[in-house]
Amino acid sequence: MSPYEACALCPHRCLVNRLEGERGVCNESSTVRIAWAGLHRGEEPPISGEVGSGMIFFSGCPLHCAYCQNRQISSRNGYGMEIGIEELSTLMLALQGMGTKTLNLVTGTHFIPSIVEALIGAKQKGLTLDVVWNSSGFESIEGLSLIDPSIDLYLIDLKTLDEGVSSRFCGSVRYQRSILRVYDYLIKKGRNTFIDEDGLLKGVLVRHLLFPGEPAATEEVLRYFADHLKESMHLSLMVQFEDPQGMNRFSKVSQEEYDRLLELLEELEIENGFVQEIEDSISWIPDFTQDEPFPPTFSEVCPYFLELKRS
Length: 311
Ligand code: SF4
Hints:
The chain has 10 helices and 11 strands. By secondary structure, the protein is of the alpha/beta class. It has a single domain (32-310), classed as Aldolase class I (TIM Barrel, Alpha-Beta Barrel). Strands 1, 2, 3, 4, 5, 6, 7, 8, 9, 10 and 11 form an 11-stranded mixed beta sheet that branches. Strand 8 (201-209), helix 8 (215-229) and strand 9 (234-238) form a beta-alpha-beta unit. Helix 3 packs across helix 4, helix 6 packs across helix 7 (174-189) and helix 8 packs parallel to helix 9. The longest helix has 16 residues, at 174-189. The mean pLDDT is 92. Iron/sulfur cluster binds next to loops.
């Protein structure tokens, strides 16, 4: 039985038959939709490598965060084009042909079965890239178990452990209720995080974005990381928060708040990972209707993606 027939790929567990056209919270059928593919140099250095990471941005999302910078593609009926499994495999190989070392799958949770199939097909045809699962962490254990054997690096969020923050920023309290199960699963998998001989990061890189006005919630995440994750995973602390609707609904993160959290990193002896400086944070809202949604120094569209888009 296909996992799409009673979909439980994410914690919403809608149990709808997506093969028969039924839709759950993500509002996606079983046909994959993507919004962009190409090289992107904005990831952490051992993921971007020299030429950039080979990214595929999937359309749709089961989680609808209030601050999502990719709202244009992640919202219900968001921007994107349908793509078949074989074409998806070919796209993966086309990214490899652009010289990248990593295949970076962004928000593919709701298409996991199709992605697994496309990866198998691509590997049979010579795909050797490290596969990066770039996700909010809003997967069910069933969903994660399906994709896990294909993944070299989890680039996975730990947005919050606080119910109120989960409701306010992540669109649902369900995120807070499910994220610890995801981390329990990853801990049990026993993956170690390290940089290999080619300079590529393997294992689990936990991404945490500081929410403005919520330093206590970040402190809770850092303490959890120190107690449970720091021996086997790396941390990426990010501060590039941007209100996508430009409504200034959220106050800015202050330097003072951030400095206190950086001190806490030291106190907790969290040493492996990456810290973004406030002044270094470049934030923008990508426009995926453009061939190059990102600043030109950061990205390069995949020619095969353009071919598909224009066909
Ligand atoms: S991916 Fe999640 S939101 Fe979408 S149908 Fe499946 S369980 Fe529901």
